[in-house]
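Example for tutorial group B:
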């Protein structure tokens, strides 16, 4: 059981012995000056029942201390208007160190998602375009959330809901035919860039010529009606797109279980519209089909369009069909959508519609979460772009990151061979991009900066990776038996264990808010605590007991750092 859960349990029991039946302990981590945790529940309870909060807390402390198990582990004291402060005793800290020796040993304390099926809908780019900086956050945040949820016991299904059925295909097919392009002959590494170029070309022609536009429309209708030639071109474009996406995914260690794009639902959207009409949720409005939210302040005058007046379904219709499919086919308990914050209205309206629709049919509702994120900004404070105004493609971002990482590695460790430097830089480059992104609160915009991203100190991947490499080198120097730790001596040792003990709590917090940056902040602070410990306490001393204890502290820090970074999606190194 995790420490906060355990505290909650023993306090509730003590309160019960004191005759308080509905006592809520309200545990929170406290200012380290006063202890490890604080329970504030007595204030609320005393107010409600007309008691004196300090007396009440005193009584609860009395019953707490009467319990051997509690007395041995923690010191409870009264503070302020009636708080109870808890400080863990050294015995308890040692026991924690001895019990948490591998990733598995954390599982019982973080298994809140055990037995749950979660669909993670993330990355989900539109096909026929290369992935660019704007696609970074969904991939990073999404993958990290998947790993965190899996660690908490969930069965996670990663579903890449690519945009493969849009109106862009009319123009593209018209242009590909007009320019006589043989898609099979395009060299793999430039094929998607060429398709993107063709699209831009077609788009500007369509703006100038009415005839061109109508031929594009015609090609789109043919595609939608299943014309074999157009279907073939469309499939080819998607295959080329996906092959290019997959290269980026494999660089970032991202693997999807399913790629059920928008097109997968194209034969299901009509039934969705019918069902919504039948349930009285959607109604026609000037030829279109819409869902009104008369009861809703913001969306009262902004209905959810699910079929346009020309009969075409849209993004909304597809998403409705998708929820239905995920519920029926995967038995999803939770669905997580990771997209740009500009889609907030869409998802709010989608979730409200799903809520009505499922309730009307008496179908159990999965929990739906929109995990949205802010924009990556350039130095001018606007969404980042290259100088000529085109997007920064992820492919070139990766190359640049590796080049810069190589330079840093060479400066830090000039004696390494070129090949090893390259291998290290290849990991550091990706980790640096990813960590810089994840360390930001997802709902904030942030400014892209190579300097900050690759800084050797501060909350960066480079800083953490170097700390890890140093720990490996200390541990590699000595083959030590893992004898249990029975005492602690210095304040730095204690502070480090206390920080380590918070790891499961941070995981739970990151998962409940779906915000991986909590974990980043924690790992950075943990590394700081480790540095203070390491600078003040020699590890490789002659005294075998002290050496063993300090090596174990080092091992546990390494375990939590590597595990934590892995949960963010990162690769760690033994040598740098
Ligand atoms: N393709 C969309 C875009 O590029 C994101 C899709 C997100 N997933 C969803 N089920 N709507 O903005």
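The residue assignment follows.
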């Amino acid at each position: 059981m995790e420490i906060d859960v355990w505290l909650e349990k023993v306090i509730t029991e003590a309160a019960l012995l004191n005759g308080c039946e509905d006592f809520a302990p309200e545990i929170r981590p406290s200012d380290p000056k006063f202890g490890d945790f604080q329970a504030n529940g007595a204030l609320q309870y005393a107010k409600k029942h007309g008691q004196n909060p300090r007396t009440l807390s005193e009584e609860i402390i009395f019953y707490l201390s009467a319990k051997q198990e509690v007395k041995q582990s923690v010191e409870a004291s009264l503070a302020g208007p009636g708080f109870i402060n808890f400080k863990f005793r050294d015995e308890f800290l040692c026991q924690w160190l001895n019990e948490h020796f591998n990733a598995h040993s954390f599982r019982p304390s973080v298994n809140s998602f055990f037995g749950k099926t979660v669909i993670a809908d993330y990355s989900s780019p539109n096909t026929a375009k290369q992935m660019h900086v704007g696609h970074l956050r969904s991939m990073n945040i999404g993958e990290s959330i998947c790993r965190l949820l899996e660690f908490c016991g969930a069965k996670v299904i990663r579903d890449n809901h690519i945009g493969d059925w849009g109106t862009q295909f009319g123009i593209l097919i018209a242009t590909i035919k007009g320019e006589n392009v043989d898609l099979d002959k395009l060299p793999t590494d430039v094929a998607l860039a060429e398709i993107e170029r063709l699209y831009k070309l077609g788009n500007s022609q369509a703006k100038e010529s009415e005839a061109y536009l109508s031929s594009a429309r015609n090609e789109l209708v043919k595609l939608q009606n299943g014309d074999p030639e157009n279907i073939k071109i469309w499939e080819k474009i998607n295959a080329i797109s996906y092959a290019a996406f997959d290269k980026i995914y494999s660089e970032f260690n991202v693997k999807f279980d399913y790629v059920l794009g928008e097109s997968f639902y194209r034969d299901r959207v009509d039934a969705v519209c019918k069902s919504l009409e039948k349930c009285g949720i959607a109604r026609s409005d000037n030829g279109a089909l819409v869902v009104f939210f008369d009861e809703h302040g913001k969306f009262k005058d902004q209905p959810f369009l699910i079929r346009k007046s020309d009969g075409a379904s849209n993004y909304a219709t597809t998403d409705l069909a998708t929820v239905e499919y995920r519920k029926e086919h995967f038995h999803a308990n939770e669905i997580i959508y990771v997209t740009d914050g500009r889609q907030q209205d869409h998802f709010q309206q989608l979730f409200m519609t799903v809520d009505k629709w499922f309730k009307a049919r008496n179908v159990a509702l999965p929990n739906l979460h929109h995990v949205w994120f802010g924009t990556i900004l350039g130095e001018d404070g606007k969404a980042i772009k290259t100088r000529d105004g085109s997007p920064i493609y992820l492919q070139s971002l990766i190359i640049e990151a590796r080049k810069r990482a190589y330079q840093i590695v060479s400066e830090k460790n000039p004696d390494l061979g070129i090949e090893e430097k390259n291998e290290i830089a290849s990991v550091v480059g990706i980790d640096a991009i990813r960590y810089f992104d994840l360390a930001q609160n997802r709902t904030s915009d942030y400014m892209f900066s190579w300097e900050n991203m690759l800084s050797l100190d501060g909350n960066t991947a480079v800083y953490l990776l170097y700390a890890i490499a140093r720990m490996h080198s200390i541990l590699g120097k000595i083959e030590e038996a893992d004898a249990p730790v029975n005492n602690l001596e210095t304040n730095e040792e204690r502070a480090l264990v206390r920080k380590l003990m918070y790891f499961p709590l941070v995981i739970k917090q990151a998962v409940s808010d779906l915000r991986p940056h909590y974990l980043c902040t924690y790992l950075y602070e943990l590394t700081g605590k480790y540095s203070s410990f390491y600078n003040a306490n020699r590890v490789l001393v002659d005294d075998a007991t002290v050496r063993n204890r300090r090596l174990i502290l080092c091992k546990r820090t390494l375990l939590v750092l590597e595990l934590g970074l892995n949960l963010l999606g990162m690769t760690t190194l033994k040598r740098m």
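The chain has four domains: 3-88, 117-163+261-373, 168-251, 394-567. Compare this with the pattern of hydrophobic and polar residues in the output above.
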